[in-house]
Sequence to fold (380 residues):
Amino acid sequence: MSTQPTSTDHTSRELPMARSMCWHCQSDVCGEYFCGRCVKVQPLSKELDYFTCMNLPRLLSIDEKTLEDTFYSLSRTFHPDFYATKDEGEKCVSLGNTAILNTAYRTLKNPIQRAEYLIRLEAGSVKDIRSTPPADLFEEILELQEDLDEFRALAGPRDSDRGRELRSKLQNDRATLETRQEQLKARLFGKFQEWDALQISSEATAETQSQKAAVLKAMQEILSNRTYVRNIVNDLIAATS
Amino acid sequence: MAYSEKVIDHYNNPRNMGSFKKEEDGVGTGIVGAPECGDVMKLQIKVENDTIVDAKFKTFGCGSAIASSSLATEWLKGKTVDEAGQIKNTEIVQELNLPPVKIHCSVLAEDAIKAALNDYKKKAATATTPEETAASAGS
Fold:
C-alpha cells in the first residue's frame, strides 16, 4: 500500500486559497476578510479548515495561546455587533463567519473533538479508515448488559443477596472500565505525539504517508472503543447510583 | 425529530428479543457496533434445511437501532439463507420511516444480518457431513 503516490493530497493544502469574487462588487478576492475595493466583509472560504482558520499548523498538540488569540481577534473582526448598522448582506456574512469561528474554536479546544476533526479532514487521503470492530469488547459489553438487565429487573427487592452481589459486581466493573477509559485516553495522546512528529519531520515520501495513515487509523480505533466504553460506563452509572 | 409510530411500536414491543446458545447447531451469531454512537447489536439466526426458522436480537442503543434489529428478525424468519442476504438497509429505512440522522441504525442492522449469515455459513462449512465438506472443497 505504500507504493501508492499520494502527493496530490499532501500538496493541495499548501496551495493558496482558490480565487473567488466579492459578493458585493464582483472584484477578485483571495481569502481576504475584506474586499480590497469595496471593503465589504467576505464570507470565510468553504475550503478553509479550522486549523488554517485559527492560524495553527495541522498538529494535535496545539498552542492554546495562538488558538485563543486568533479566536478573539477574529471574533472582533466578524462579531455581529459591529455590523448592526451595515446592510443585510454584510450582517449575514458576519453572522455566518461568527458561527464558523465558534465551531472552529470549540472543535480545536477539545482534544477529543480535535482528533476526530483531524481524522475527518485527513480521511480523504487514507484508504480503509474504518477500523476493525473490537469483537472482544462487544462480548464484554453484551455480558455486562445482561447483568445490568438482571439488576434492573430486581427493581424492588435489590436488598436481596443477589441484588447486593450484582450491585457490587457492577460497581467493580465500572471501576475497571473507568480505568480503561483513562488508558485509552493516554494511548490517544500518545498517538498525538506520533502524528505531530510525522507532520513536522516529513517530506511527503510514500513511507511517511503510510505511517501517517496508520496513526490515523489507530486513533480512529481508540476513539470508537472509547465511545463503546463510555456508553456502557454511563449505563452502569445510571443503574447503580 | 420525533420517532415514527412504527419505531415506537418496535421499541415498546420488541419482537424476538433474546438469544440462542452460540454453540447450538444451525445458529449463526452476528455482533456489530456503530463507532459513531457506540450502539452494540447482537443478531442471531437459527437455520434448518437452509431456511431461517427463528431469529433473535439484543440491541443496546437508541430506539431506531432497536426497531431496526427488531424488524430485521421479523423479516428473517421464513427466509432462506440466500434470501436473507438480500435484505437491504434501505428497505428498513423505508419501513420504519427513519430520518437521515438515523440511517446508520439500519446499516447496523444490515451488517448484523450479514455477520450472522457469515457466521452460520462458516460453522456449516467446518462442521460435519462428508458431502458438505466435499461440496465446499469443490467450490
Q: What stands out?
A: Confidence is low (pLDDT under 50) at residues 1-15 of chain A. Strands of chain A lie at 20-21, 28-29. Chain A touches chain B through 18 residues (CB under 8 Å).
